[in-house]
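[recover] target loaded
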């Protein structure tokens, strides 16, 4: 027990595995299975993968430890944590997180709704092999009342789990969901390996063309930075919030490495599933946009033997992964209301969840709006939140942060110094450049 005296009966994780699984559950989601492949496709294949992997290790991992340290030290939600630690304007940085979380979850739930719908389509009628037919089917799924209905269904499940609280709701849910995601992904990658298009897909996905990096770096850098933050659930306080429910002083660096490793592995394996399927069906992976991955995968499933079943399993897995991520997004805002305004969990969850449903309506109604929300939140807000936090921790409270990181690790003097300097300079530089390019490109 550290400094949780002032927050009388605050929730906490029951087990170490509970925290790690919840953080893995938050990290692994639509970002890995939907967003990652379409970013790879849009940004030139293996070249993007390479930069992305670099950013995850050199920027994402240290940035995750920043959030962990702040959460565990304060035992508070992001707004409260920053208000406690920061003077002047720094004390308000938590609000950037809350705003970002709100926007992301609103459209995240819409996309998750599509995955539920696509699961049902597979089980009911199978998928349509014809490209044009698959496209018009997607437009039905992703707009108007159909999309709104499944957005509502998804939000209702998220609300129910978060309302149950940390131990009974979130921790229990992720213990079932995360192992399911891992097993199904590996099974599907093995299956994809047997497809005719596999070897072309592997060379597209795995052997980088450095010319592509040289000519497209102004779009690859912000896309890779945004994707690294999005996929690791950084830049909006989710990891602050989850670490705030830690009571014992455990090795945060080790936990962080496990979480980053899992998330990266699932994204990587998703590429090994998606690209062979696309290449086998003769679909060009460079087709940009948030819908293309659905259209082309559905068409590919329509083409494969037993494609309805494989497709339904695939989309159900995506829905499950989205669920454990959406839970963490909602928890950020709910924890703020509980901590700072003494609102009870159920009321807070219903109010915020209802608000999110409404905010998601434009994205559900029209795909163009969804793409705008996604680009704005991902390449601008997340990166901005991460940048502000890196500046604050690296330059304003470095000693406090290293001291907190040391707990549960023991003496880490040189590592702690390395970590602080990583945050102070390289992380800040990359994020500033990415943010500038992201704003220019938006
Ligand atoms: N990391 C999640 C994914 O990859 O799908 C998305 C996400 C969850 C982003 C929670 C941010 C967050 F706070
Ligand atoms: Na992720």
């Amino acid at each position: 027990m550290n400094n949780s005296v002032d927050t009388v009966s605050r929730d906490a994780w029951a087990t170490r595995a509970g925290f790690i699984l919840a953080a893995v559950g938050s990290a692994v989601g639509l970002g890995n299975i939907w967003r990652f492949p379409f970013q790879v496709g849009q940004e030139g294949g293996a070249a993007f993968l390479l930069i992305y992997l670099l950013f995850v290790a050199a920027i994402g991992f240290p940035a995750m430890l920043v959030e962990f340290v702040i959460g565990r030290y304060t035992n508070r939600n992001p707004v409260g944590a920053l208000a406690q630690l920061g003077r002047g304007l720094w004390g308000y940085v938590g609000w950037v997180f809350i705003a970002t979380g709100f926007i992301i979850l609103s459209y995240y739930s819409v996309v998750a709704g599509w995955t539920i719908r696509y699961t049902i389509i597979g089980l009911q009628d199978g998928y349509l092999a014809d490209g044009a037919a698959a496209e018009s089917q997607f437009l039905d799924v992703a707009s108007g009342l159909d999309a709104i209905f499944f957005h509502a269904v998804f939000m209702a499940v998220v609300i129910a789990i978060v309302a149950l609280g940390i131990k009974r709701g979130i921790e229990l849910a992720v213990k079932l969901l995360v192992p399911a995601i891992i097993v199904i992904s590996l099974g599907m990658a093995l299956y994809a390996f047997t497809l005719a298009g596999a070897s072309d897909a592997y060379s597209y996905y795995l052997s980088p063309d450095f010319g592509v990096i040289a000519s497209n770096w102004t779009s690859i850098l912000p896309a890779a930075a945004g994707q690294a933050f999005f996929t690791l659930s950084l830049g909006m306080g989710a990891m602050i919030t989850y670490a705030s429910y830690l009571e014992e002083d455990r090795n945060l660096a080790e936990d962080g490495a496990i979480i980053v490793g899992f998330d990266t592995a699932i994204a990587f394996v998703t590429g090994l599933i998606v690209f062979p399927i696309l290449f086998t069906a003769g679909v060009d992976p460079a087709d940009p946009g948030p819908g293309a991955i659905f259209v082309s995968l559905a068409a590919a499933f329509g083409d494969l033997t037993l494609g309805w079943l494989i497709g339904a399993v695939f989309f159900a897995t995506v829905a499950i992964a989205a669920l454990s991520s959406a839970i963490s997004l909602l928890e950020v805002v709910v924890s703020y209301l509980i901590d700072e305004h003494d609102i009870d969990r159920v009321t807070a969850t219903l109010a915020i969840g209802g608000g999110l449903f409404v905010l998601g309506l434009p994205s559900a109604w029209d795909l163009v709006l969804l793409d705008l929300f996604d680009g704005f939140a991902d390449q601008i807000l997340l990166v901005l939140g991460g940048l502000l936090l890196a500046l604050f921790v690296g330059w304003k409270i470095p000693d406090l942060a290293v001291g907190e990181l040391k707990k549960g690790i023991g003496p880490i003097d040189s590592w702690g110094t390395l970590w602080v300097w990583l945050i102070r300079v390289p992380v800040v530089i990359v994020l500033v450049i990415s943010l500038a390019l992201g704003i220019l490109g938006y």
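[recover] notes: The chain has 18 helices and no strands.
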